[in-house]
UniProtKB/TrEMBL annotation:
Keywords: Endoplasmic reticulum, FAD, Flavoprotein, Glycoprotein, Oxidoreductase, Signal. Belongs to the FOXRED2 family. Probable flavoprotein which may function in endoplasmic reticulum associated degradation (ERAD). May bind non-native proteins in the endoplasmic reticulum and target them to the ubiquitination machinery for subsequent degradation. The gene is Foxred2. InterPro entries: Auxin_biosynth/cation_transpt, FAD/NAD-bd_sf. It comes from Neopipo cinnamomea. This is FAD-dependent oxidoreductase domain-containing protein 2. Interacts with SEL1L. May interact with OS9 and DNAJC10. Interacts with TXNDC16.
Amino acid sequence: LGLALCAVSGTAFLYHDYCVIGAGPAGLQVAYFLQQARRDYIVFERSHAPGSFFALYPRHRKLISINKQYTGKSNNEFNLRHDWNSLLSHDRRLLFRRYSRDFFPHADTMVRYLEDFASLLELRVQYNTAIIHVTLERNGQAWNGHYFLLTDQDRKNYKCSSLLVATGTWVPNVVNFPGSEYVEGYETVSINPEDFAGQTVLILGRGNSAFETAENILGVTNFIHMVSRSRVRLSWATHYVGDLRAINNGLLDTYQLKSLDGLLEGDLEDLAIVKDKKGKLHITLRFYLENRNISAGIDSITLPQDELDNFATRAPYDRVIRCLGWKFDFSIYNRSLRMMPGKGNIKKYPQIKPSYESRSTRGLFVLGTASHSVDFRKSAGGFIHGFRYTTRAVHRLLENRHHGVPWPSTVYPITQLTNSIIKRVNEASGLYQMFSVLADIILLRENATAFEYLEEYPTGVLAELEMQTGRKAPNGLFVIIMEYGRNFSGADKDVFYYNRAVGEAQHAWQSNFLHPVIYYYKRLPTEREMKLRPPEWPLPRPDAIHHIVEDFLTDWTAPNAHILPLRRFLENCLSTDLRSFFAESCFLFAFTRQKLPPFCQQGYMRMQGLVGSEGLRRHAVQAGLLQDYTLRDFSDDRPPDSHDRSRDQLLRDQVILVRPLQHLVNAKDE
C-alpha cells in the first residue's frame, strides 16, 4: 500500500484511495476497519496526538459515558451494551475497562486510550496536519466521478477517491446580541471554583456543558441562574443520552427546593447585557436598546425592572458564561462540495443521507459526532457507543461499492430462525445502542427453507438494501430492531408513573421500555414507501409486526413470554412449523403426514440430530412431549436385564428404518 504521487496542472499530489480527516474516536475507528481490510488510506490529524478534543473537553474532566465494569456476564458482545467508551477491535487489551475502573471516567484516560488504540494497532495517522481546504476535481475515471483534493497548512496537497470526514463538532456556538462581548465562553472560563466565590452567575445554555459548569461552582456562588430558549430535557425522560444526565443536575435540586438558584426560558437573541460602572452586568431586552447608544451609560438605558419591578433577572450578575455546545466546521470545504448545514435543530450538522453520505457529493461520508443529524435526539449516533457501529456500517457499504465485497452474512436452515433472533436480541450491542437506526435483516430463501442473516444495517436505506449490500431479497424479509414505546419518551413525560411496564405477552405491543420489534415484509419496501411511512416510525408499515414484550432484566429468553409468541409469529408469516421434535415424533410424522416439519426434514431424515439419553427421554415423557413406549415386564422367568435389551432393540430397529424411510418420504413428495 505504497504512497502514490501524481500531478495535476503542475501541482504534486500524494494519492490515497481513502482520506480520513480527524483522528478522534470515529477517525480511528474507520481507520481500524480500513486497515483490517488492507485498504490504502491515511488519517489527517491537526494535533500532535489523537483525540485532541478530549484533551480540553469536558472542561471539568469527567466524562458522562458510562464504564460498567461488571454485568454478571462474560459475553463480550453483551458487555459492550454497557461500555460506552471502547472502540471496536479484535484486541482485548483495548477495552476501556482496562484503563479505568471509574463509572464516569476522567477525560485524560480517554486521551490515553485513543493514543494506545492508534499505536498498538499501528494505524496510519499523519499528525500535525491541519487540512485547510478541500475541493473537487472532476474525472470520469474516478470511483465517484471526481477526486477529492486536500491542502494542509504547509500547502502540501493530497488526492483521494473517497473522503471520510470525522472532525466532530468543535466550533463553539456563539449567539451575538448587544453586550455579548461581556460573555465568557465555556472553552476558556476558569474551572477553579474559588474564582467564583461570592459571585452571582448567569449561564447561557441548558445542556450538559451548562449544568457541568454549574455543578462545579454550585457550592461557592451567591446564586446561579440559567437561561435558554427551551425547557430542560432530562435524559431519563427523553431516553436520549445527549440530554441532561443525572450526574450534572444538582442545580435542579437547588432550584426546586428554593435554594436561590433558578432556571428561565427565553430567546437568547432577544437579550442584551449592559455593564455598569462597578463592573456588574445587567440583563435587559434588545428592543429597549433600539435607537440607543449602549455605550452611553446604564443610567440612560431602560431596564425591564423599570416597568416590571419583579422582573426575574433584575439582580445584576458578576459573570455571564456561554455554554451552548458546538457546531461543525464548514469553512474548509470549497463550494464545489456543496457541504450545507441542516435545517432547524440539526443546523449544526452537515446534510447527509441515512447512509451517512453527503446529500450533494458522492463519495463524501461524514462519521462520528458530525453524522448525528441522522438520529439526533433519537438514538446514540453522536456518541462513541453509537457511532462505533454506524462507522462499521459505512465501511461495509464502501467495501461493497468499491471493492465488490458483499455485506457480511450467514446462511442458516429455517429451523434456526427463532434461535438466531433470540440470540441476537439478547446480546447484540449495535442493535441495543443504535435502537431504531440499525437493524438486523433476515433474507428468506425460496420456499422458506433457509435464510440469510445480515447484522446492523441502517434502517434509513432499507429500500436500497440490494444495491448497498450486494445481497438479494426476492422472497421477503424480516427486520429486527429495538424500540422504546411510541409515547414513552419526551421532555414532558412522566416515565416513573405506576404500571409503566408491561409484563404479559399479549400486551407486548404496549411495551414502553426498550424491547425487540420484528417487522415482516413480503417484498423489499420501496423508496416511496420509506418516505411515506407513518410519523415517528423507523420503517414503513409491514405485512406483519411482532413486539417481544419488554423485560425488566433485558433478558428475552423466557420460554412462554418471549420465545413461544415469537415462534408462532414466525410460523404464521412463513406458513410452516418451526418447532423442534424428538426422533420418535419425526418417525411418526413420516408415516402419517404428507409433509414433514422442517426440523424433521432437515435433521432426522438426513440422519442428523443429537443422541438422546435416558434422562432426556424421562423428562420428555413427564412433560407430555413423548408417549411412554417403555416395554413392561410381564414375565417372571425373564432375565433382569431383558427389559433394557428389548428397549435398546426397539431403538436400533427405528434407526435401521431411517434410511429406507427417507426414500419413501422423498417419493411421496415427488
